[in-house]
Write the structure tokens for this entry.
Amino acid sequence: MESGIVMNGLITIIVPVYKVEEYLVRCVDSILAQTYANLEIILVDDGSPDNSGKICDAYAEKDDRIKVIHKENGGLSDARNAGIAQASGSYLTFLDSDDWIHESYIAYLYGLLRDNAAEISLCKFLKVINEEVPIEPSEGKVDVLSNDAVLERYIDLGDVFHPQLVMACGKLFKAELFDTIRFPVGRLHEDEFTTYKLFHYAKKTVLSTKPLYYYWQRE
């Protein structure tokens, strides 16, 4: 195919896990509820001192799409990188373990990639302080941008999409973008050192204002 989009391709979801036993079930259940089923789910237990690692293992016993990596604590970047190294999917997405996603999240982002022959697609995230979220999110507005155009919006602090553009979560990437890119270990605000590189190498990015990623605001 000219677009390079794999029809019904395997999509890898990478979830770094650290001290989130209170939220992890909600997160993983939202992944398992996805309407798009061809998934590889990598839960990276980053040396969590609570029961998070045991919860990951229990899920892996119930669903063979789930793979668990247990490692020494190395931080968010190191955990994501460990997941990338083990990923088999043609596409990658990242989900923080205290957040969760609408059941159509994967199918919608994959459709945006396929329909627009793009390398990155992203939706809006909804900041939430409770679990009362819209059952049917608004359709939203869709923009298809070149790498130069999306980077112009990336550096515009006043752009409505700026926070979403910077974050690694809430996006679906063609896996090949990570052939030479990793998250910087030991750096704060690691996303800021990574996502702009991915946008640079992606010839086309699709932005949607449809809110399908639920960003948990802890007290």
